Amino acid sequence: MRILVMAAGSHGDVAPYTGLGAHLRDAGHEVALAAPETFRELVTDSGLDFRPLPVDPRGAGTGGPTGGRSDLLARAAAFIGQLGDGLADAAAPGADLLLLSTTTAPLGWHLAEAMGVPSMGVYLQPTLPTREFPPVVGGGRSLGGWGNRVAGALGQRVVDRLHTEAARRLRSRLGLPALAQTARRRAVERADWPVLHGFSPSLLPRPADWRPGLRVVGNWWPHVADGYQLPSAVDDFLQAGPPPVFVGFGSMAAGHGEWLSTLAVEALRRAGVRGVVQAGWAGIAGEGDDVLTVGELPHARLFPRMAAVVHHAGAGTAAAALRAGVPSVPVPVTADQPFWADRLTRLGAATAPVRFADLTADRLAEAIRQAVAEQRLRERAEESARAMAKEDGVGRVAEAVVALGG
Question: Which of 31, 269, 359, 399 fits 21 for a cystine, CB–CB 3.0-4.6 Å?
Answer without folding.
Answer: 31
